Amino acid sequence: MFFNLPTLLTWARIVAIPLIIGVFYLGSLSTAEQNLAATVMFVLFALTDWADGYLARKLNQTSSFGAFLDPVADKFLVCASLLVLVHLDRANVFVALIIIGREIAISALREWMATIGAGKSVAVHMVGKVKTSVQMVAIPFLLYDGVLADLIDTNVWGTWLIWASAVLTIWSMVYYLQKALPEIRARAR
Asked: How crowded is residue 185: how many other Cβ atoms within 10 Å of its Cβ?
């Protein structure tokens, strides 16, 4: 279905992008307020990724459109947030290129594998899920860019986590390419 509760939650992640970006252009907010607002929005909208999948299964409202839109919304939210972080000089452009480049390459690979009937060989794997989880912690830490509870320097932790995410990103890309390699070789002949 094009419009049901799970799909609307997925759409919310896409709608969130200009809101998260826009926060940093509101002159009426201090930098700390901008950081907090962007962090809270990112976390709330990122949680819709879990909620839409749970509700789709619980309410029996799964659809091929929802299955298509869900990873697209995730990738848009992550890529837009990374670009904001690069612009704010809180994330390295090399990290952003690794993560965004992998998303484009693996999405294209999955699409091609699906057209030749081998889509299951590049289905989501645990390393991809771990990569996504690390990204979803690193990004709000970097958006917040402050000290939590006088203990956690979110910029330091976020920087370490986003680099760890870049390593996991490369690892997951290599994994998916290895899984697809037999098909790639067979089709190259």
From this structure: 9
DSSP 145-183: -SEETTTEEHHHHHHHHHHHHHHHHHHHHHHHHHHHHHH
pTM: 0.89
Walk along the chain (189 residues) in steps of 10 and give the mean pLDDT of each run.
81 92 89 95 91 83 82 91 96 97 88 75 78 94 94 96 96 87 77
Q: Are 81 and 24 in contact (CB under 8 A)?
A: no
In sequence order, which residues have a C-beta less than 8 Å from that of residue 5 and are 6 or more positions away? Answer: 55, 59, 61
Alpha carbon distances (Å) from 19 to 3, 25, 107, 134, 161:
21, 10, 25, 23, 24
